[in-house]
Every structure is written in structure tokens, then in C-alpha cells.
Amino acid sequence: MMAAMRALGAHLRAHLAVMMQYRGEVLLWSVWGIVNPAVLYAMWSAAAESSGSHEIASYDRAGLAAYFLVMMIVGHATGAWDVYQMGHFVRTGVLSPMLLHPVLPMWRSLAENIAYKVVTLMFVIPIWIGFAWLVGPAFKATAWEYLLGTIALFLGAALAYLLSYAISLIAFWAPKLDALGEIYFALCMFLGGRFVPIAALPDSIAGLARVMPFRWMYQFPTELLIGGRVGFRDTLIGLGLQIVWLTFSFVLFRTLWFAGLKRYTAVSG
Questions:
Q1: Are 209 and 193 in contact (CB under 8 A)?
Q2: Are the beta carbons of 61 and 45 closer than 8 angstroms?
């Protein structure tokens, strides 16, 4: 484990340097995480204002402003792209030299993920502040909700990364993962509450969302950080479910990784 931590530190320093060299490109990558929730806020707040109750899923305009502002932050913290990247690594043989290193390639991927999120903070924090100033979000969180919401945010980020990486290992059997990546992204959007609060979805889809991991990555920490949405008992249950899904994702990763290595053969793209 100490060797893995040293390797993570070395990879992190290297990737931070790379990200700083490509600040313009990194800025463009980070814009999507801002534009998408902002557009969705404009759409759903307009829908709420035009409804008889002036609400969508019990969120009024200020509540929706808070929801999509926090969802920007949660989406930034939970971003993961290995489900798109691993297929290229396997198909082109890029993965082969990584396997010669004394630590798993996942540590390199994790360092890249963290470096991106750290460097892009210089771009997204001013935009978050500007968005909050423009839309006037309403927060009701108490101290315990902020504390447990922050814990839920870190657990959600870990879950999003590990599950994405585990799913990306399907590339050992099917190296073209572009379609799978789009399906995974769509599930995160709809079943994670990123498109609209889950309560606004049809009952059948909302019921499915409650038993899938995506809600615990996105909407659960978002609701906690807004405040007044999740009771203390349900919060503890939610944190427990995050840990359960994290454990499942780790077991899935270990299973697919060792099974995939047994059949891995680098091919040209």
C-alpha cells in the first residue's frame, strides 16, 4: 500500500504539471460541467413558474437554483471518464507498458482524475459564484447536513470513480466501449437526478433510480447539501448504501481485472 501511495503521489505531481500546460484545453473540458446544469436549471425553473403550484417535485425556483448549483459541484467532484478511455488503451496496446509498472494502472488513472479536478477549480469556482449571484439559490442545510453531506460527496465521488473504472474493464472482452459509455452517461443523468430531481420522474423510473447506485453518487449528496430534504435516519441509511455500493464496485473491479488480464492480448486499432 505504501508503494501504491508513493506511486499515486508521483503520478499526481506529473499530471498536475501536464494539466497546467494545457490550461486552455482543460477550460474547455470543464465548461460542460457548468453549461449542462445551467441550461437544465433555466428549463426546469421556467416549467415550475408556468405550473399551477410554481414547483417541480416540490422545488420552487430558488430551490431549483440551489439544486442545480450544488449539482454542478457534485458533478465536478464525481466526474470519471475511464469507461470511455479504457477501450482505447486495450485496443491500441497502450495498456501493455502500464502493466509493467509495479502498481496497478488504476493509480495512474486516479491521479489524472484528481489532477483534473484540482486544476479546473480555478475556472469553475468563479463561475459557481457568478451562477449563485444570478439565480439566488435557497439553502436550508443545518450543520449536521453540511457535515454529512460533505462525507456523502466524497463517498459519491469514490463510488462514481470506482464503478466507472470497473465497468470500463469490459474492454477486455469488447474493446469498443463508446456506446456503453453513452449508455452509462445517460443512466447517470436520468437515474442520478442530474437531469431533473428523481421525484419528478414517472413512478416506474423513480422506483428504479432508488435501487440503482447513481442516485447515491449525485442526488443524495446534493439533497443533503441543500438541506431540508433528507431526514437524519434516511441520511444514515444513504451513507450505508453508498458504502455497500462502494464494496460492490470494488469486488466487481477485482473480479473483472483479474479475469480480463488472463485473456488480454494487445491488438492494433
A1: yes
A2: yes
CB 66, CB 147: distance < 8 Å = no
Residue with grid cell 464494496, as numbered in its chain: 247
Give the residue numbers spanning the domain of 251. Answer: 2-263
Model pTM above 0.70: yes
- Is residue 53 situated within a structural domain? yes
Find cell 495498456 and name the residue.
Answer: 95
Q: Evaluate whether residue 253 is within a structural domain.
A: yes
Distance from the Cα of residue 60 to its chain's centroid:
25
- The Cα 133–Cα 46 span in angstroms is 18
CA distance 146 to 222: 10
Alpha helices (H) in the chain, listed in sequence order: 2-21, 23-50, 61-78, 82-92, 95-98, 105-119, 121-135, 143-168, 178-191, 203-211, 214-217, 219-226, 232-263
237 located within any domain = yes
Q: Supply 116's cell numbers.
A: 483534473
* C-alpha cell recorded at residue 175: 474493446
Tell me the three state secondary structure of residue 200: helix
Q: What is the pLDDT along the chain (269 residues), one digit of tens a residue?
A: 666 677 667 767 777 777 777 666 677 777 777 888 999 999 999 998 888 788 888 999 999 999 999 999 999 999 988 988 888 888 888 888 888 888 888 988 999 999 989 888 988 999 999 999 999 999 999 999 999 999 999 999 999 999 999 999 999 998 788 888 899 999 999 999 999 999 999 988 989 998 899 999 999 999 999 999 999 999 999 999 999 999 999 999 999 999 998 888 765 44
269 domain-assigned: no
Instruction: Note whether 167 and 180 are within 8 A (CB).
Output: yes
Taking the C-alpha atoms of residue 196 and residue 40, their distance in angstroms, rounded to an integer, is 8
Per the structure, the count of domains in the chain is 1
- On whether the CB atoms of residues 70 and 59 are closer than 8 A, the answer is no
